[in-house]
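hiii so um. not sure if this is the right channel but i have a protein structure encoded as tokens and i wanna go backwards to a sequence. like what aa goes where. can anyone help
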């Protein structure tokens, strides 16, 4: 059942060293504030899962939080490489990073399987692709009805799913508008969940009938962190901060420069720093 707590309390109560942690949000509603709290609380040995690891995972990896990454694409979107991720894979700094790479389709199906409490996902994919040669977790099964050979991947069942959303109501139901990605499936597949939101409202009366709503009984901790998806965007609240993504390319190339930036902008600050990026509700 959902409970409203501070971000510090949510991360302390729901994350542990060695956990499988999924921070999801597809270009939109990426839970940066929660990721920074993981760094401040010095979680270690994490298996990080994400369809599109970008800057927040570069930061987590560079600060030594991760020992494995399960993903389907990694980069600074629209800019280039994730240098902290590359340094960990290529040079073992600040610690070695194991990787398990999949396609987008495989990751989405694996989350669906986890949400449905199934052991694996079967789908049409990987035909003619070489990824299975380097990822032994990609296997196949023959359909008992048609004889068709289908690709399979293990279900993704995180210990903790962390997402950002626009609203939570008084009862703890969570509203997500705009590009949804796999946030719903990640929460339903996980043992525990943390949801940061832009605001808390009394009810969702008048919300469009096709909006994505996570019922309160599917959600664990909820914490109000306005601006908590910055530098990604929250539809209806603020735009994507493209300058941040461009600036990150230079910041992340150098180990010392990266550590200095993280000390000043993450370790020395708390979730209240994101308030400066929150934009009040935009209508129209």
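sure thing!! here u go:
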């Amino acid at each position: 059942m959902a409970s409203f707590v501070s971000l510090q309390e949510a991360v302390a109560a729901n994350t542990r060293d060695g956990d499988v942690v999924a921070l999801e949000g597809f270009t939109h509603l990426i839970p940066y504030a929660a990721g920074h709290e993981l760094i401040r609380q010095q979680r270690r040995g994490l298996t990080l899962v994400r369809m599109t690891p970008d800057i927040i995972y570069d930061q987590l990896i560079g600060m030594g939080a991760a020992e494995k990454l399960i993903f389907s694409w990694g980069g600074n979107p629209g800019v280039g490489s994730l240098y902290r991720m590359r340094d960990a894979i290529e040079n073992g700094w600040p610690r070695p990073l194991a990787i398990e790479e999949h396609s987008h389709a495989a990751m989405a199906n694996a989350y669906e399987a986890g949400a449905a409490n199934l052991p694996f996902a079967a789908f049409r994919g990987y035909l003619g692709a070489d990824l299975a040669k380097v990822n032994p977790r990609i296997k196949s099964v023959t359909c008992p009805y048609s004889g068709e050979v289908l690709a399979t991947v293990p279900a993704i069942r995180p210990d903790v799913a962390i997402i950002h959303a626009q609203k939570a109501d008084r009862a703890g139901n969570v509203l997500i508008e705009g590009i949804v990605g796999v946030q719903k499936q990640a929460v339903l597949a996980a043992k525990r969940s943390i949801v940061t939101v832009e605001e808390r409202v009394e009810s969702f009366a008048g919300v469009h009938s096709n909006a994505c709503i996570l019922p309160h009984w599917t959600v664990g901790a909820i914490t109000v962190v306005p601006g908590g998806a910055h530098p990604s965007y929250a539809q209806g609240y603020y735009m994507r901060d493209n300058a941040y993504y461009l600036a990150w390319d230079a910041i992340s190339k150098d180990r010392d420069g990266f550590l200095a930036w993280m000390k000043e902008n993450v370790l020395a600050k708390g979730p209240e720093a994101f308030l400066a990026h929150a934009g009040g509700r935009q209508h129209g």
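oh and The first strand starts at residue 3 and ends at 4.
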